[in-house]
Amino acid sequence: MKRSSESQALYERLLPEAIAASEKAWCPHSEFPVGAALMTADGAVIQGCNVENVSYGLTNCAERTALFSAICQGEKPKSFRAMLVYAPKVALISPCGACRQVMVELLDKGCPVFCVGHDETAARDWTVEQLLPGAFDAF
C-alpha cells in the first residue's frame, strides 16, 4: 500500500504500540486479541485492547477502550491525529459497527484509521468518513 510520508510515519509509530496493546487483551472466550493505538494531538499514544466478558454484549473492543481511555485522560473529542487497529490472528481487521459509530463522534471525519493483521501487505487505510459513510452524527 502506498502511503504519504506523513501517513507512513504515523503507521510506523502506532503499529508497535497496537501490537503491545494486543498482548494485554483479555480474550479467554474468543482467543481473538485486538490492540489499538490512538495518537493524541500532542503526539502521545494511548493504547486500548479488547476486554471480553462471557456475556459477549458486555465486551469492549480495543478501539473503544483506547478512545474512552483518552477521553477519561482529558483529551478532547475530534483532536486525535490517527488510530491503528491490530489483530494478530487475521490477515486484516476492520472495526465493528459499534466502534465505527463511536469513532464518528470522537474522531474527526478525516482522521486516518489504519487496520492491519498478521499480513501487513493486506493492511488498509481508511478515514472515519470512509468507515461509516452517511453516519448519524449529532455534531
Automatic annotation (TrEMBL):
UniProt keyword terms in alphabetical order: Hydrolase, Metal-binding, Zinc
UniProt domain CMP/dCMP-type deaminase: residue ranges: 9-139
Transmembrane regions listed in the UniProt entry: none
Enzyme class: hydrolase
Binding site for Zn(2+): C61, C96, C99
Molecular function per GO: cytidine deaminase activity; identical protein binding; zinc ion binding
Residues noted as binding substrate in the record, renumbered to the chain: N50, V51, E52, N53, V54, S55, Y56
Essential cofactor(s): Zn(2+)
One term under GO cellular component: cytosol
Catalytic activity reported: cytidine + H2O + H(+) = uridine + NH4(+); 2'-deoxycytidine + H2O + H(+) = 2'-deoxyuridine + NH4(+)
UniProt cross-references to Pfam families, sorted A to Z: dCMP_cyt_deam_1 (PF00383)
Record carries keyword Hydrolase: yes
EC number(s) reported in the record: 3.5.4.5
Entry-linked PROSITE patterns: CYT_DCMP_DEAMINASES_1 (PS00903), CYT_DCMP_DEAMINASES_2 (PS51747)
Catalytic residues, chain numbering: E63
InterPro entries referenced in this protein's UniProt entry, alphabetically: APOBEC/CMP_deaminase_Zn-bd, CMP_dCMP_dom, Cyt/Deoxycyt_deaminase, Cyt_deam_tetra, Cytidine_deaminase-like
GO biological process: nucleobase-containing small molecule metabolic process; pyrimidine-containing compound metabolic process
Entry function: This enzyme scavenges exogenous and endogenous cytidine and 2'-deoxycytidine for UMP synthesis.
Family: Belongs to the cytidine and deoxycytidylate deaminase family.
Alphabetical list of NCBIfam families matching this protein: cyt_deam_tetra (TIGR01354), PRK05578.1 (NF004064)
Name of the molecule in the record: Cytidine deaminase
Organism per entry: Pseudomonas kuykendallii
